[in-house]
Amino acid sequence: MTDPAVMKRVSVHDGAPQYLMFPRLSFYEEMEKEYPIYTKLKMIAGNKNNRLFRTYDTFMEETYGN
Prior knowledge:
The protein has four helices and two strands, in the order H-E-E-H-H-H. The chain is mainly alpha-helical. Strands 1-2 form a two-stranded antiparallel ribbon. A hairpin with a 2-residue loop joins strand 1 and strand 2 (16-17). The two termini are 20 Å apart. The relative contact order is 0.16. The mean pLDDT is 79.
């Protein structure tokens, strides 16, 4: 499930992205190659001041204490 290709298959249906937010930087890097909106979504998801949801920037530390 953490493989970017798997996440892409989950988030694209009939050729259209569903704009799901994943806590993995690699997901956004893969998706932005084909769907430029993910460049902006990557900036939102990676913003340390974002309090709406846990993001790839802090997810591992908050979840696993690393």
